[in-house]
Amino acid sequence: MTTFGELNPQAASIIISIVLLLVVIATFMFIISITEKMGKRYVIVGGGILLFEYFGYFALYKGYYKIGTKYFPFIFYVVENTPAMLIILLTAGIEVFVVLWSISFFSWNKKHITLTSVKDAINDMEAGIVCSNEIGVPVMVNLNMEKMSEYITGKPIMNANVFWDDLKNNNLIQGCEVMDQGDNLILKVPSKRVFKITRRPIEVDGTKLNELFITEITALYKATAQLHEENSRLQRMNDRMRNLNDTITRVTIEKEILSLKIKVHDNIGKILLAAKRFFVSREGKISDIVNMWRESARLIAANDDPLKRDEYGLMFKTARDVGVNIKVTGMLPQDQSRKRIVATAMHECITNTIRHAGGDELYINTFLSDMGKRGRNTMAAVYMGPMVVEFTNNGNPPEGKIVLSGGLDMLKSMVEDYGGEMVVQSEPVFKLIIRM
Description:
By secondary structure, this protein is α+β, with helices and mostly antiparallel strands. 58% of the residues lie in helices and 16% in strands. It has 13 helices and eleven strands. It has helices at residues 9-35, 40-65, 73-81, 84-111, 115-124, 143-153, 160-168, 218-281, 286-304, 306-309, 311-321, 336-357, 406-418; strands at residues 128-132, 138-141, 177-180, 184-188, 194-204, 207-216, 325-329, 361-368, 387-393, 421-425, 431-435. Strands 2-1-6-5-4-3 form a six-stranded antiparallel sheet, with helices on both faces. Strands 7-8-9-11-10 form a five-stranded mixed sheet, with helices on one face. Strand 5 and strand 6 form a beta hairpin. The chain is rod-shaped and about 165 Å long. The N and C termini lie far apart (108 Å).
């Protein structure tokens, strides 16, 4: 049987080269198991395989080429006289073991978090991140941060503090601009993309670091700008609606006053004609003329009543005209802003009482929201503090949940613009609650 020492040089070189390749693979796996902080089993077994393969390579190489050494002469003699087939089988077995061990090794590496996987995950982030010590020396920079630094400053990050100062001072390439300054910077680049840049101190294993984070907010920035524009448009619409409501109220009151003045003017004309006929031709009765004067005086007095001319007076008159009796418990607010809101609510509730509830009485209850006490039973009391106004009626309860639309929706906007809150209840009875 041919021994290993009797093999031709080509065959021996192939075997020795295969063992050397196994040594390289074992070395690579052993280094990874240490740097990636893998389990103790992989470190120990990897180290054992490396030592065994390296010693085998050393023994085969020395034994075949008869390179003299004073260490382990017996082992080299045994290797030289070992059957070549046994060496080949042993090498093949080691190869199979290394392949199976490599499969287990890389399978563990894929299923567990390692330093490399963390580094790859940070580099795959869409955001840019750099961590530096207190003097600005970077200890970790991902690829996106390197690209962003080159893109907006034209140079790589050598010092994170200098990079932050460049951002704060707008020392950027043409077309890049920091739009807002502070702890958070808003950066706009020539491609019309917008980025948020945040800097904060962190602590890792007792070491104080500064983290600088860049993330794209283009969609959010556009949506926010669009929302601001929409809010401005809605505010302008609300202002126009409020002015329109004031104009309608003022015109209605002036129309009522004008109608009353025309009526008074006509009555005075009739009185003067009747008085002339009575004194000239003694036609008519003096008592009828006196009654006509009294009626005109009553109309003039009604025209001079401020309560009849303001929003509340108009709402009370409107309610009487449509057959609804308003009963007030407490004191209605007299400042102009809240008066407008309450008058609008009265109008909506009068309509609801007639159209939907089929009732003929509207109840308004007011009390102080900070003390919960009832106010005096007067409409003319002036009160500027926070209060609650509740509206109910004697009609049928709603058949389902009330969906705010039309007038109620506009009323809710008026209340919220004032800084108050409006709640509509549908069970067990209709109730409109305004806190302001």
